[in-house]
Predict the structure.
Amino acid sequence: MADYKNLWVFVETKEDGSALNVGLELLNPGRKMADTLEEDLVAVIIGGDVSKAKEEVKDYGVDKIITVEGEIYKEYNTEVYANALTKLIEKHNPNVVLVGATNLGRDLAPRVSSRVGTGLTADCTELEVDTETKNIVWTRPTFGGNLMAQILCPDSRPQMGTVRPGVFSKEEAARRENIEEISEEIAYDKEVRTKILDFIPREEGEDVDLAGAEYIVSGGRGLGDPSNLKLIEDLAEAIGATVGSSRPLVDSGWISHSHQVGQSGKTVGPKIYIAIGISGAIQHLAGIGASDIVIAINKDPDAPIFDVADYGIVGDLFEIVPKLTELFKQRKAN
């Protein structure tokens, strides 16, 4: 185990070569855990041109940056990326590898963990270091989301896990002096068996950026009827917020899955999260834990949502929400 050292964060990139938010978010807990482990924090970036992402991560406390660039990495391909990350791990022997639980990360991380012979904890919502054993404690919801499990990987290295976007805040840290930059050349000698032939645009309404939203207004079963979603939409428009939803509304076909917040939806971390008519099942609470301020409106004073809310209003949402909307409209007008 002594041969394995340093904490890696895989930083996924966008089409323009800049860093995806989840990678920058993971550098925040990564820095803290690396300090506890007395190891370096390393950003690992793979892409066609990663110059933008490489400059971005320097503002998040990294000690080292490892990059793999080339035309073959311009678009994500499972085999090509898995080959590159596996070879990096086999060469540098990291102690810990964090990957965002995006579509790409959920595809890449299990393949790599299998190739290097280690375990993988998926969809984590909390991370910490066991100070006695120096193992990472990975916390994630169990199947069904009714309990939170803590998982350790004491016998294999690296310790690997995927973390949902929005769980941690994106916090810049002081730039380290003399950041070491390592550029690795990794060719792919085999025939690429899968290629992207075309992109199908998202349908209108599908592209909802809940993970990046600063303000979210979400509705739940308490709305009673799909026509009452307009109450949520009007309030969201008045305060410049994104519309969210609990799972029952999606299951009932009232709103698309792209609006769903929670364990089976999006994990969010807005400045303000307003939960309207949402009781607060553990699956939903798991998705809003990183919110700075939670405001709950519910007629049931014993609703679990009030246990996590910073501010709570017990009352009839059909009376309260229109008044709030009107108040915000008046403020905007003035």
Observations:
- Residues 68 and 163 are 22 Å apart (CA to CA).
- The two ends are 63 Å apart (CA to CA).
- The longest strand covers residues 41-47.
